[in-house]
Amino acid sequence: MGIGANKASVDADDDTDLLNNPMKTALVQLQDTLNERNMSLKSVVAIVLYISSMDDYAKYNSEYIKFFSSQPPVRVCVELPLPPHQPLLVEALTFPEMPERDFRKSMHVQGISHWAPANIGPYSQSHQIRDIIYVAGQIALVPGSMKLVEGGARMECKLALRHINRILRSTDSKVELRDVVQGICFVTDASYIVKCREEWEKRSNNGIIEYLVVPRLPRDANVEWCVWAHMHNSAFEYEETGCYIGSGVKVKIIRRWNYESRVAVIVCRASICDQTGRIGKAELLEIAEYALTKLLQEAAEAEKSLECAVKVFYKVGELNPVDIFDVFSNQLSVTCSILPVCALVQENTVLSICGARHQ
């Protein structure tokens, strides 16, 4: 099973149209990239929109819907502290279109209900690709009113996780929250991380979850969850490894993989341990090689040439994104998203590499 991770980013200096319609430009670039690989927008399963201002959410939605109408991809949208010249970044997860009748199944609920919220944009609640279910980003909207639940971050986390569980069970009755393999919990304040982690660990210890602080979320929510699940998650293996790199840099990797090693995921975190700690290009290269080695561990040689979905989150102001790009793209020839965030899971954590490999 092939998988593609394709990105279309826009730079406001490219041409005049970008200043007026960056979403259209990004999606056209994405469409062109897919065409080069003999795919189309119908191949897209999941989209993440990283935007520089949530004030532009409605404007971007109106353009986005022109590209995705029937059975649109699942979608996540967050505001990031992107560089001034970059209004947005579109990240797309694609699967080649396959002839099998039951290869892909979508759930696209638009009406008001009482079991889970209707979508607030042109996206599906879930897409199932064989054993894997991708879920749209979930915030704590009360299904009957579509208003954000009151009670703060913990209450929002509880309701968002309930939404995920119900969407998973509605997509496939054998799948539930405990089958989440990998996820990201976006929060708007670092103090919410402990609360969200506690709520997650009450419900499951099977998934690898990263916690990231961002400036703003849709509907001014405090919490948004982004996850995907596997029907046979209970059979996955788990390990934690780590090392020290350079002077004062601690690296920790959490890895999960299934017994056939057809699916593997990692979260690799780099933290500055003392005042002597620094992460330059040499340290970045060593961290990246360590993370990718773990992601590809036990994969057959033929599979190591397949694309992996890799996201590199860095604490804004702490690392140079140009160095990250040079290490991953130029030195390692790895396509990845390079994404600034306000903070990571711990105060001294400055880098997180989230990777997934599917056969």
Q: Mind summarizing the main beta sheet?
A: 6 strands, mixed
Model regions low in confidence, pLDDT < 50 over at least 5 residues: 1-14
Mean pLDDT: 88
CA radius of gyration is 19 Å
Provide the spatial order of strands within the biggest beta sheet: 5-6-7-10-8-9
Order of helices and strands: EHHEHEEEEEHEHEEEEEHEHEE
Can you count the beta strands? 16
Backbone structural class:
alpha+beta
Strand content: 25-35%
> Can you count the helices?
7
Oligomer: single chain
Question: What sort of overall outline do the alpha carbons produce when their principal axes are compared?
Answer: globular
Helix fraction, binned, reads: 10-25%
Beginning-to-end CA distance, first to last residue: 5 Å
What does this structure look like?
- The chain is of the alpha+beta class.
- 24% of the residues lie in helices and 31% in strands.
- The protein has 7 helices and 16 strands.
- It has helices spanning 16-20, 22-36, 57-64, 153-171, 192-203, 281-296, 321-331, and strands at residues 4-9, 44-51, 74-79, 88-94, 104-107, 126-129, 132-135, 180-187, 208-213, 223-230, 237-245, 249-257, 263-272, 309-315, 337-341, 349-358.
- A 6-stranded mixed sheet has the order 5-6-7-10-8-9, covered by helices on one side. A 6-stranded mixed sheet has the order 11-12-13-16-14-15, with helices on one face. It has a 4-stranded mixed sheet with strand order 1-4-2-3, with helices on one face.
- β14, α7 and β15 (337-341) form a beta-alpha-beta unit.
- α6 (281-296) crosses α7.
- The longest helix has 19 residues, at 153-171.
- The radius of gyration is 19 Å and the shape is globular.
